[in-house]
Design brief:
The chain has 5 helices and 19 strands. The protein is an alpha+beta fold and 312 residues long. It has helices spanning 16-33, 164-167, 221-232, 244-250, 268-271, and strands spanning 38-41, 46-47, 50-52, 55-58, 69-71, 93-96, 99-102, 111-114, 119-122, 132-133, 136-139, 142-145, 154-155, 182-183, 186-199, 206-218, 238-242, 279-293, 300-311. The protein has 2 domains: 16-34 and 186-311, no CATH class; 38-139, no CATH class. 14% of the residues lie in helices and 34% in strands. The strands form 5 sheets. Strands 7-6-10-4-5-9-8 form a 7-stranded antiparallel β-sheet, with no helix packed on it. A 6-stranded mixed β-sheet has the order 12-15-16-19-18-17. The protein has a two-stranded antiparallel sheet with strand order 1-11.
Length: 312
């Protein structure tokens, strides 16, 4: 008589649903990058309505000294390898009052990069009246799991580099800390407790069918409808997942706790590659459906449901 649960050895390990959610976030994020859903920003580049897209502003963050934290008008910067016709701009450094300071710099201008929150964090504060600029790329579609703080504050018009809020220090929408602010459009991936187990192999494996909801938020119909169509069109897609517990234990998750890149990290394509040692299971998107919500008010919303199946 067994006194142990099957398919789990420790309380603190991620279970199937959490691992599925993490993997689908990674998949959707990478898939959008691989079709060019990113914007390159060069020095002195102007936005569609004006403003300086390359400019960084100081952040009034009580956890840091004045002048330590700087942000761009868009967060969620690209660090991933991208398979597209042109490449994103990978951050190589910042310009401070016209002088280039590389990411490898030391001393007064040494800094780290928080890619998800879109922050440059200096080891020591610099004058908040400094002219700080940077070349980078940001993601046009952000993807979160349902454990994230995505629901706290939705920021509208985040493509407007000319926004007066961006140049205000100590007030305005950009004064809301980056980790508590999300920019449209974005997708929230949420595996739900709609699970069916079906026999697959006598005395051995079962196939697990589970629903996953993709909550889509946008401020225009084009973004909402495009993202909805992209996800609906994945019916019958075959995906591979990585072993989330093993990745964390091995120290190869691509980002560190502070949003910087892990020098020992592997990207999503490497984690699901055969032979690397982290691929876990194959899943299939068996069925899809979609529903439009709250079409007469902002943010515009829709929900796509995937029914996915994989062996356990």
């Amino acid at each position: 008589m067994s006194t142990h649960f099957r398919h789990v050895s420790e309380w603190g390990q991620a279970r199937y649903s959490e691992e599925l959610g993490v993997n689908l976030v990674q998949f959707v994020n990478q898939a959008y990058l691989n079709i060019g859903a990113f914007q390159n920003v060069t020095i002195d580049q102007s936005g569609a309505y004006g403003g300086e897209m390359s400019r960084l502003r100081p952040v009034d963050d009580p956890r840091y000294n004045e002048g330590q934290v700087w942000q761009a008008f868009r967060k969620n910067w690209v660090w991933e390898d991208v398979d597209y016709t042109h490449s994103p701009i990978y951050i190589s450094g910042v310009y401070i009052n016209g002088d280039f300071q590389p990411t490898t710099g030391v001393g007064d201008y040494a800094f780290s990069i928080n890619y998800p929150d879109g922050l440059i964090v200096f080891d020591n504060g610099i004058d908040i009246d400094s002219d700080v600029e940077m070349e980078y790329s940001y993601k046009l579609v952000s993807v979160y799991d349902d454990r994230s703080d995505w629901f706290k504050n939705i920021q509208y018009n985040s493509q407007r580099a000319d926004s007066a809020h961006f140049t205000q220090y100590g007030s305005g929408t950009y004064d809301i800390l980056s980790q508590s602010r999300v920019q449209l459009p974005f997708v929230v991936v949420s595996p739900i407790a709609d699970v069916e187990l079906r026999p697959y192999e006598v005395g051995n494996h079962h196939e697990r069918r589970q629903s996953v909801l993709f909550h889509i938020y946008a401020e225009n119909t084009w973004d909402r409808n495009t993202i909805t169509d992209d996800l609906v069109n994945q019916k019958n897609a075959i995906l591979f997942t990585f072993d989330y517990n093993k990745v964390l234990e091995s120290g190869v998750y691509p980002l560190n706790y502070n949003g910087s890149t892990n020098e020992n990290g592997l990207n999503y394509s490497q984690l699901i590659s055969e032979g690397v040692g982290y691929r876990r299971r194959k899943i299939e998107v068996e069925d899809v459906g979609a529903e439009q919500l709250f079409s007469d008010s902002l943010p515009l919303r829709s929900v796509v449901r995937w029914q996915v199946a994989g062996l356990i």
